[in-house]
Amino acid sequence: MATKKTQILILPYPIQGHINPMLQFAKRLASKSRHLILTLLLPTSHARSISSHIGSINVQPISDGADQQGQQFQTAETYLQQFQRAVPGSLDDLIRLERGHDQPQPTILIYDSFFPWALDVAHSNGLAAAPFFTQTCSVSSVYFLFKEGRLSDEMELPHGIPRLEQRDLPSFIQDKENSAHLLELLVDQFSNLDEADYVFFNTFDKLENQMVEWMARQWQVLTVGPTIPSMYLDKCVKDDRSYGLNLFKPNRESCRDWLCERRASSVIYVSFGSMAILKQEQIEEIAKCLENLQTRFIWVVRETEMAKLPSEFVEWNLSSGLGLVVTWCNQLDILAHETVGCFVTHCGWNSVLEALCLGVPMVGVPNWSDQPTNAKFVEDVWKVGVRAKEDEDGIVKSMVLEKCVRAVLEGEKGEVVRRNAGKIKRWALEAVQLGGSSDNNIAKFVTGLALKD
User: Fold this and answer.
1) Which range is the signal sequence, renumbered to this chain (predicted)?
2) Is residue 441 in a domain?
3) pLDDT in tens, 38-83
4) What is the chain's alpha carbon radius of gyration, rounded to the nearest angstrom?
């Protein structure tokens, strides 16, 4: 008798940093069983420019309302509000339609943890439901403790979390008044978590072992990370060489060719992700730092930020030839290259995780959201980098940044950081290899689905 096929629906928050880890998780699931059909649900405003398949993963458009109104959204917050209004109904309609066909039935919805309402939609249609947290267990626990009114200077934090100063907290907790909507979004992740059939985290056990154990006592937690393409880790998922989805166009060949001409561990890589908008003064301070260091560098400056580059810096770089300034790049290619010795990063979790997996020391210049807390862990828990201290206006000055970069690249501190980075790189590989903690959790989930059928 032929084994029945099972469809898994996956609903990410529709930005690059949330789509990619959930897409990678889908690829890992597909590699575990040929009887699984993975369908990534992307809003129609995104799906128009994306293929109907990304490798073995189906891409299914779901109406976010923007297609009906043809409107442009001024901020991420206004789009999210529109998304929250339109997608619950669209998701309900899509599930009902899928269940009315003879094709393999969806049995579970894996949704971004930002969308707790998705659990209610799934359960009302007879599907299991599992949130996927794109942030660490430790950061997520801070939001949970805040929700419970248990986050204070006096409290003893759960295992694995160091004592956090105000500057180490997620920015939405630091500035509650101006971040009310986004803070509500993050706190609401826990509103119905007790009802979830599984709770997935993009982390791995050894990285947060005490915190993972604490959270697993609260919910049905499974760590399934790191969710980066298999080519950069275990190389066990066929043809998994990239995320497969880019909302920005990378300068891939120019970066690779430029790096091949440099010596090992000599290049500084500077990037602040796909969303950060830096102040003019901060960009000027970074430019000064790079000039003072007189070291080879690649600096990613998105097209929308290019006008902020000081003309003196542009002229200096043209004459010195020390650096390469690009509007976007394949970050994994850069971090995996032997010539890169330091990553100056905003400490978004995807960027930190990529650096951890590839053993690259970091200098943290956090901007918002979970980044300050991630930077704290980079420096004081995992000890794979340093955090640059900002001034009273929130600006990291050039001399401060220069000192941090030199600390990571040179001397005794640099040796310790590189040694720790190499150790965690091995942990990451172990987690996804056959029999590793994340591999076992993924296999356990897939086996559970088969038994339910």
Assistant:
1) none
2) yes
3) 999 998 876 666 778 888 899 999 998 876 544 566 677 788 888 8
4) 22
